[in-house]
Amino acid sequence: MSQRSAEAPTKALSQAQVDQYRVQGYLSLGKVLEDELVASLREEYDRIFAEARMGGTFRNLSSPRAQVGEKAEEMLQIMQMCERSLLFRRLLFHEGLLDVAEDLIGPNIQLFHDQALYKPAQHGGAVFWHQDNAYWKCVPANLVSCWLTLDEVDVSNGAMHLIPGSHLRPVDHPRSDTGSVLLDVKEQVDDSQAVAIPLPAGGAMVHHCQTLHYTPPNHTDRQRRAFVIHFMPPGTWSAHRGEYIPVSFSNPVLRMRL
Ligand SMILES: O=C(O)CCC(=O)C(=O)O
Q1: How far is the CA of 156 from the centre of ligand 1 (A)?
Q2: Cβ–Cβ contacts within 10 Å for residue 84, how many?
Q3: Distance 183 CA to ligand 1 centre (A)
Q4: Which CATH number does the domain 26-168+181-255 belong to among 3.10.20.340, 2.30.40.10, 2.60.120.620, 2.40.160.20?
Q5: pLDDT tens for each residue of 139-148
C-alpha cells in the first residue's frame, strides 16, 4: 500500500523572519486580523470580562494594594478564553497564525493555553519583567506565544517590551516578598536594551517562551485588550504536572501533519 505523501508545509515567514526569531527571540507580524473579526472579538471580550466582573471569575495580577488615584490598579487575566467562547476557540485554529507557528516549531501544534490580558483605561497595571517558562517549567523550552492586540497598542497604553536574545539563557526567577502574584526580574534586566513593539488593532507578535518581556501600566484614556495563544509541540513535558501534557479539550491539537 502506498503511503500518502505529507502535505507540503506552508511558509508564512521569510527565512529572514525565521532567523530574526531564532536570534532575537521575537518577531513582530504587524496586522494579521481583519477589522470585521477584530470587532467581533472585541464585543465577545467585553461580554466575557463583564460576566467575569460580576462572577469574580478573573484574576487581577496587580497587587491588591496598588492604587491609581482613586481606583485600584487592574491587570486582569482570564485563562482559557477558548473554554468560555466559541469565537476565541475558533481563533486558535486561525490558519495564518498556525502557519507562523508551524514555521517556528514544526507542523504538529498543540495548545498549551490561551489567556486574555486586559489593561483597562487609566488604571491598567504592569506585567513585570519575566520569562514565561519560569512560570511554566516546560521541557523542551520551545513554546511560542502569539500575542494579539484588539486595540491599537503603543508604549503609553501597554505595548510589549522585550530584550533581544534573552531567550538563549534562562534566568533565575526568585519569588519576592512584595505579595505580588507576578514574578519580577527587573534587577537582572538591562532595560536600556528593551525593544517596544507598537501594533495596530488586529496586530500580532510572536515570542519565545524564554524571551524576557514586560508591559508598562496603562494610564491613558484608551483600553488595551490583548489575547495570547501559547503554542507548543505535542510531547511537551510539564515539570509542574509531572507528565507530558495530554491532548484534551483544554489542550487540543490545533494542527497535525502525519
Ligand atoms: O499582555 C500583557 O500585558 C503581558 C503579556 C505577557 O506577559 C505574555 O504574553 O506572556
Answers
A1: 15
A2: 18
A3: 12
A4: 2.60.120.620
A5: 999 999 999 9
